[in-house]
Amino acid sequence: MADKADFIQKIGSWAAEHQKATIFIIFISVVYGFFHFGIAGSSTLIIVLRIVILLFLLLLILSPLKIKQQEIIDEQSLDSELIEDVKLESEPEEKEDRENISKGLFGKDPVEREKEYRLLMNRVLRIVKNTFVANSAALFMLNEDKKNVVMSEIISDAGTSEGSNGYSAESGIIVRTLDNDSFLSNDPEELKGLIDYYDEEVSLRSALASVIKINNKSEGVLVVDSMEKNAYSDDDLKLIESYTGLISHTIENFRNLFDFEDSAKFYSFFYELNKGLNSSLSYEEIIDLLFDTLKKMFEYDRMTIAEYTRETNSAKILRVDGQKDDFPQGTVFGVEEGVSGWVINAQKNLNLKDMESGEYFRPRYSKEEKTNFGLRSFLGVPLSYNEICYGMVSIESTKPDMYTERHELILQMLTGNFTAVIDRNITLKQLEQLATTDGLTKLYNYRSFASKIKEEVNRAARYDLKFTLFMMDLDDFKRVNAVHGHSAGNKVLVEVAKSISLAVRNVDCVYRYGGEEFAIILVETGLDDAMGTAERIRQNIEDLAVKYKNKTIKVTASIGAFEFPGKAISADDLIVEADNALHAAKSEGKNRVVAYSVN
Fold first, then answer.
1. Which residues contact 458 (CB under 8 A, 6 or more apart)?
2. Quick check: 250 and 206 in contact, CB under 8 A?
3. Phi, psi (5° rounding) for residue 152?
4. What is the C-alpha separation between 194 and 446, in angstroms, rounded?
C-alpha cells in the first residue's frame, strides 16, 4: 500500500510540475474517451481512457499545483532579503560613519554611544594609516590589570587578528613603547619578534608606535607598520605622538560624556563640538555654538565670553548676553586687575558666592570700577588646554550663592570641550604641515611630491598641458658632512632650499626628495622655457657662500630636466626619465643642467 501511495504521489508531483503535459494528456483522453470516432462506446479501450481521465483529474485536484510557483515566490523573497543584506553590507564605510554620527548622541543608550565611539576611532585610524602610508594602523588599550592589552581597532591591508583579542602588555612592541613613551624601528629582524597581530607572516620593515596617555597615565598604544624599507623617520615619530594626543583627548571626552548621561543637552553639545574632528567649523561658528549652548544650560543675569591675546596680555569681550552695563561686546581689558582677568592669568576656575560680601570690592574687569551693577554671584572658567589659555567664560547672577560645585563642573566640562575643538583644529593644521613638509628645509617632502606629481600628470593629460620636472642633486655633498660635520651640512641644505625657492615662481613646487636631492615641478611650463629657470637655480647655488664657524662652504648642483608629455606616460616614467637626465649631468662633469625631451 505504501508503494502504491508513493507511486500515486510521484504521479501527482509529476503532474503538478508538468502542467502543460498533464493538460495535453487530459485533452487527448477527453477527445478519444468521449468522442471516440467509430470506436464502440462500451469497448474496453473507451472504459480505460475514461478511467485515465478521471485519475488525472483526481490527481490534479489533490496535487499541490502551485508548489513550484510558491517555491519560486519563496526563493524570490529570500533573494530579495539577501540582496538587501548585500546592499547594506556593501555601503561604503565612510557613508555609514557619516550617517551614524550625524544622528547625534541625544537619547542613545550606552550600546549606541559605544558604537559612536568605535566609529569615530575607526575614522581616526583610517586617517593615521593614510598619513603614514602604513600597512596597518592598530590601537591597543590596557585592561584594568595593566598587564594585558586589547586590540580596540585596526585598519590593515593584510590579514590580522580580530579586534578585542588579548595581547600581553609585558612583551613585544607594546612593552617597548610603554617603557619609552614611543618606538621607532626600521630593522626588519628586530620587528619579527615584536609584532604578532598578523594571522600570516608579513615582511615588515618599519614600525612606529606611541603611548596614549590620559591624565598623565599610560592607557594604550598606537602602532603603525610598513613593508617599505626605512619608511619612518624622527619627523614621523613626532607626527604619531601628535596623533596619540588627539586620540587621548577623544577618549577622555567620551568618558566624560558617559559620566553625564543624565544631561541630554550636554550630549547634544558634546556631539556638536566633536564634529570638529570631521568638519571644519570656523572660529566664529565655535564661539556661536558655545554661546547658544550656555544660554540654554544656565540661569544667569549676564553671560560673557572673552578672548585672550598673549601678545598684548589683554582680553576682548566677544559675546555678551543679559544685563547691559559699562562692559559691552568689544571691550578690551587687562588680565591683571579684575576677577575676569584673574581667571585667565591663573588659568583657574573662580566661583564667588557674593561679590558684595566682605570688606573689599571685587571689580570684574578694571580697578577703575566702582560698582558691579547689582551682580552678586560670579562663576568664571578659563578656556585653556595644555596650559595654553584662549580666553574665559563667566556667568553672573544678581542672586548671591547662585552657583554650586556642580554648575562649576558642568561649565568646566563645556568650556573644556570647546577649547579642545579650537586646539584640535590648530593641531590638525600642524599635523597636515608635518605630514607634507620637511622638518629641516621647510620645503614640501617626498610624501607630498608623490601625490602632486600624479595630480599634475593627470591634469596635463586631461587638458593637453605641458609641465617640466627637475631632479636636482648637490655634488659631492658627503664631503661637506665629512669635512665640516652634519650640522654644517644641514645649514647648507637650508640655504640651498631658500635659494631654489627664490628662483622659481609662486605657482611652482619645490620638494626635498631625500638627503641632498631635490625635485622641482614647473607647472604649465615646457622644457624650452624651463631651461632658463634650471640654469638660474644652478648658478644661484654655485654663487652661495654658506658661513659656518668662521668658514665658508661652497657647493654646486647637477640638474636633470624632463618635459611631460613625452616618452613619459605616467608619473613613475616621468621620474625615471628626469632621474636619467640627472645621472647624465653627473657623468658629464657635474655642476650642469641636462635636459631630455622625447617627442
1. none
2. no
3. -75, -45
4. 28
CB 512 within 8 A of CB 443: yes
pLDDT digits (tens, 9 = 90+) for 175-228: 888 889 999 999 998 888 888 788 778 889 999 999 998 878 888 899 999 998
Cross-strand bridge partners of residue 220: 141, 212
The pTM of this model reads: 0.40
Look at the block and give the residue holding cell 561649565: 411
Distance in angstroms (rounded) separating the CA atoms of residues 348 and 344: 7
Q: Give me the pLDDT at residue 250, please.
A: 77
C-alpha cell read off for 535: 640654469
Instruction: Check whether 84 has a pLDDT greater than 50.
Output: no
Query: What distances in angstroms separate CA 355 from CA 394, 399, 400, 401, one per listed residue?
Result: 14, 10, 8, 10
The per-residue b/e assignment along 279-303, b for 16 or more CB within 10 angstroms, e otherwise, is: eebeeeebbebbbebbeebbebbbb
Distance CA 482, CA 459 (A): 43
| DSSP state string for 463-501 | HT--EEEEEEEETTHHHHHHHH-HHHHHHHHHHHHHHHH
Q: Helix H segments across 66-159?
A: 67-90, 93-102, 110-131
Q: What is the pLDDT of residue 64?
A: 45
Average pLDDT for residues 315-321, to the nearest whole number?
Answer: 95
Are residues 100 and 119 in contact, defined by beta-carbon separation less than 8 angstroms? yes
Burial class (CB within 10 angstroms; exposed 0-12, middle 13-18, buried 19+) of 214: middle
List all residues 6 or more positions away from 406 whose beta carbon is below 8 Å from its beta carbon: none
| Secondary structure class of 393 (helix, strand, coil) | strand
- Nearest residue to 406 (alpha-carbon basis) of 532, 263, 519, 539: 263
Cell numbers 503532474: residue:
15
DSSP 275: G
CA dist., res. 232 & res. 578, Å (int): 25
For residues 375 and 564, what is the distance between their CA atoms, to the nearest angstrom? 72
